[in-house]
């Protein structure tokens, strides 16, 4: 297995600091810079909805100390994932508490169809094209953005705006969401992304790092729908895979690292894990024997800054609890010096 030092020896210098928002707050700039710096030596570990639900509990919006990750390891993940589909202000208390203890916060947005309030998978009426000015969904979309801007600006702790990694329009190279490749041209997608970012910035929101995360980029392509360096800070990808698809996952890692380093951006595995969760995994060492071993052996892929696994539920999970098949290996994964949970995460906001 490749050691951390070996991975560092093959590290290639990246281009200069290239954050997208010139008016970003000091703490947001610090998070961006530190993600790039820490990612040269480590992989930051994140878990979606980790304080919201687990294998045997759900719908926690006030709790800040309950997490299957903490139950499994004694500590929290370094990065906490949330989604706006549960309500824009739903997690305000949790987000502020996480920031106080030094954690990193990321939000995705499984947005409803702004034309009919349908599910994210409902593409009726060409919603992406119609969210733009003059479109039938623009009033609803801009209303959501107004509320979101108010929320981002309300996230203030001791006079400091909480930096947020914001990941809208994700998995856009697939066909399952209304903003996917089947439902819009590359130019339409880029225009919608830029409009959304410009709208928030126009409302005075400057505590965001924008994360672009297509699905399986080495299969579907990557650059065609990229909104541009002035609108993206973190270049990631979403990929759930079976063990016999590990090569394609590693190809995605390399593609994203190369693409981001050429632009001075942060490379990340924004949503990953075994296909159909750990429930479908037969081997007991998926974390260290498969995922981590492959990552450390690849001199390019090992330069990802962070990874995020999906949430636990009563049916599927990415975090094994004590007594479950992958738990001992998950503890080994947590202890690996290359991996950073909250207990070893350095200060990220200064």
Task: Tally the structural domains.
Answer: 1
- Per the CATH scheme, the topology name is TIM Barrel
Summarize the biggest pleated sheet: 8 strands, parallel, barrel
Number of contiguous helices:
11
Strand order of the largest sheet: 1-2-3-6-7-8-9-10
In short:
The chain is α/β, with parallel strands linked by helices and 350 residues long. Helices cover 32% and strands 15% of the residues. The two termini are 33 Å apart.
Describe the structure.
This protein is of the alpha/beta class. It has one domain: Glycosidases (TIM Barrel). The chain is 32% helix and 15% strand. The chain has eleven helices and eleven strands. The protein has an eight-stranded parallel beta barrel. A two-stranded antiparallel sheet has the order 4-5.
Keywords:
alpha/beta, TIM Barrel, eight-stranded parallel β-barrel, globular, disordered N terminus
């Amino acid at each position: 297995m490749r050691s951390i030092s070996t991975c560092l020896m093959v590290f290639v210098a990246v281009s200069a600091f290239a954050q997208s928002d010139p008016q970003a707050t000091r703490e947001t700039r610090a998070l961006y810079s530190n993600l790039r710096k820490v990612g040269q030596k480590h992989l930051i570990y994140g878990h979606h909805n980790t304080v919201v639900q687990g294998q045997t509990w759900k719908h926690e919006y006030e709790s800040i100390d309950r997490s299957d990750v903490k139950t499994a390891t004694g500590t929290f993940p370094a990065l906490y994932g949330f989604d706006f589909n549960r309500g824009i202000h739903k997690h305000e208390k949790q987000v502020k508490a996480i920031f106080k203890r030094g954690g990193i916060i990321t939000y995705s947005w499984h947005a409803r169809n702004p034309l009919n309030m349908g599910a994210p998978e409902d593409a009726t009426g060409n919603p992406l094209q119609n969210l733009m000015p003059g479109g039938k969904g623009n009033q609803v979309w801009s209303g959501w953005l107004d509320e979101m801007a108010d929320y981002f600006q309300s996230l203030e702790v001791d006079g400091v705006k909480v930096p947020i990694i914001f990941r809208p329009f994700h998995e856009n190279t697939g066909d399952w969401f209304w903003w996917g490749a089947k439902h819009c041209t590359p130019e339409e997608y880029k225009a919608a992304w830029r409009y959304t970012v410009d709208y928030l910035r126009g409302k005075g929101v400057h505590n965001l790092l924008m994360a672009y995360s297509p699905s399986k980029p080495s299969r579907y392509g990557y650059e065609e729908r990229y909104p541009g360096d002035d609108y993206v800070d973190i270049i990631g990808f979403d990929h759930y895979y079976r063990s016999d698809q590990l090569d394609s996952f590693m190809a995605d890692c390399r593609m994203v690292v190369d693409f981001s380093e050429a632009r001075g951006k942060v490379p990340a595995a924004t949503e990953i894990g075994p296909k159909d969760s750990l429930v479908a995994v037969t081997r007991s060492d998926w974390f260290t024997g498969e995922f981590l071993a492959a990552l450390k052996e690849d001199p390019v892929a090992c330069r990802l800054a962070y990874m995020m696994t999906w949430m636990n539920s009563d049916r599927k999970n990415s975090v094994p609890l004590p007594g479950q098949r992958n738990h001992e290996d998950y503890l080994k994964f947590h202890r690996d010096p290359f991996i950073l949970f909250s207990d070893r995460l350095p200060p990220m906001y200064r």
